[in-house]
Specification:
Elements (H helix, E strand, L loop, with lengths): L13 H12 L14 E7 L6 E7 L2 E2 L2 E5 L10 H8 L4 E4 L4 E8 L2 H14 L2 H8 L6 E6 L2
Antiparallel strand pairs: 1-2, 1-5, 3-4, 4-7, 5-6, 6-7
Length: 148
C-alpha cells in the first residue's frame, strides 16, 4: 500500500523539505532529524485548501502501535499550518515509520490522555518541555493510529 496520488507540494521550509526527501530516498533508513539526531516519521496529508499532497517530518513518538504527532513549532505563538489539515481530514492521512507508509486516522488529545502522550513525547524529545514554556498556547498533540 502506498501513499495517496496527487500533486505533491514540498514544504516551504528547507529543513523539512530536505528531511522528507532524504527519508523517502533512503527507503526510510535515513530517519534522524538533522538537529537532534533523533528518529522522525513522515506524515502525509492533503492540504485543506489546495487538495495537494503535503508531507511533514515529526519526531518519532510511538507507543503500542500509536504515534503522537506534536505541533510544537519550537514553542512559537501559533499552531503549525499542517495542524488545520489534520483537523480538516483526520482519516485521510498516511504515516511512514520505515520503508512503507500506512494509512492512519488522528484525533487531537485532551485532558489526562493528552498528559500521558505529552509525557511520552517529552521523553522521546526533551526540548518539547521548553517549547511549551515558551508559548501561551497549549501545544497540540494528536494520536495517530492505523486506519481500519
Amino acid at each position: 500500500m502506498t501513499a495517496p496520488d496527487g500533486d505533491y507540494v514540498p514544504s516551504p521550509h528547507e529543513m523539512v523539505r530536505n528531511q522528507v526527501a532524504e527519508y523517502e530516498a533512503s527507503g526510510g533508513r535515513l530517519n534522524l532529524s538533522p538537529r537532534a539526531r533523533l528518529p522522525v516519521v513522515i506524515v502525509t496529508m492533503r492540504g485543506r485548501k489546495t487538495g495537494k499532497i503535503r508531507k511533514i517530518a515529526v519526531m518519532r513518538v510511538e507507543h503500542a502501535g500509536g504515534y503522537a504527532i506534536v505541533g510544537s513549532v519550537g514553542g512559537g505563538p501559533r499552531h503549525p499550518s499542517w495542524y488545520y489539515n489534520l483537523i480538516a481530514e483526520p482519516a485521510g492521512l498516511w504515516l511512514q515509520d520505515g520503508p512503507t507508509p500506512f494509512r492512519i486516522c488522528v484525533r487531537e488529545l485532551a485532558g489526562a490522555e493528552r498528559a500521558i502522550w505529552w509525557e511520552r513525547a517529552v521523553l522521546a524529545y526533551p526540548p518539547y518541555a521548553s517549547y511549551q514554556d515558551r508559548t501561551t498556547r497549549t501545544i497540540p498533540v494528536f494520536l495517530a493510529t492505523p486506519a481500519a
